[in-house]
Amino acid sequence: MRSISPYLDTAFSFDSPGSLAEAGVLDARSARVMGSATGHYQAQTVHGGLQYFDCNLQFPEPLRIDKVLPQSLCFVQVFDGAWQHKVDGKLNSYAPGRLHMLGLGESLEAQDQLPANSHARMAGVRLAGDYLLELVRDDLQLKPLLALSADGMRFDQLPQWPTVSRLFQQLYLSPYTGGLRRLHCESLSLAIVLELANHLIGHRFTRKPRDRGWRDLAIETRRQLDANLSATPTAATLARQLGVSETTLRRAFSQEYGRSILQYVRQQRLELARALLLERRWQVSQIAYHVGYANPANFCHAYKAYFGHPPGAE
């Protein structure tokens, strides 16, 4: 990251409680760390002002981190455990299994605080404010991405996002080392930024004005589908809620995303299922029910047809 960020590039693995203040996670000139941990942490600048990080840490004693965060944009996927901090006096809580976004439009004081015996396994990407400005200068279509960190602080828990969750899982489980790992982290981190930008921006500058109504309709349909993957509403139900005909809804969605609503839901469910399988916490049948399949056998068949191997192979 740029020097204005308190987060340093580092990596450590503690088999027994080690001091986080001495681990080089944060710049001592702009942060104060109190507490110890076991487990691993790594952070690596992969492209200009873009940094990837992940961790799997246990905190045997209370943790407190006082720091100043610069203008930036951060996306965090929490796999297990939890995290929380106060930014400019406002408490932000990160829930397990969810994707979160923190946008800062200016430098703000922040305090991370966790009680003893807490646990956090998560991954994320941080975009420096000047890196965001460079992106916008190169392509004005990305201006709405900069707007996420335009004023004060913005913290959001995003809908279930199987594609992004899968990218974070691939980063977390990267089999590479050295230069190959850096290339792997760079490519997937940029893929995450691209996926988020495409969804959040909604291609609002890339189509003709007359298409705006259909595009907005498709984006809202996708948002509602992503938020209810285990029990997705029917196209007819969505059409009634959005005040259009079912035919219009289906055509708008197909035009925007290049696939039918049914194809999109099936793909997102299977992507989410794979992310859950890689966490190794649930049985195949439990995951099948969780992602909306009434029959585990049908789930296994669909999974093999999509990925080329049965879910048990994960």
Automatic annotation (TrEMBL):
Protein species of origin: Pseudomonas oryzicola
Top-level taxonomic group: Bacteria
Entry-linked InterPro entries: Homeodomain-like_sf (IPR009057), HTH_AraC (IPR018060), HTH_AraC-typ_CS (IPR018062), PchR_regulatory_protein (IPR053142)
PANTHER family tied to this protein: REGULATORY PROTEIN PCHR
Keyword vocabulary terms for this entry: DNA-binding, Transcription, Transcription regulation
Pfam families: HTH_18
Organism taxonomic ancestry: Bacteria, Pseudomonadati, Pseudomonadota, Gammaproteobacteria, Pseudomonadales
Transmembrane spans: none
Protein name as annotated: AraC family transcriptional regulator
Domain HTH araC/xylS-type: 219-314
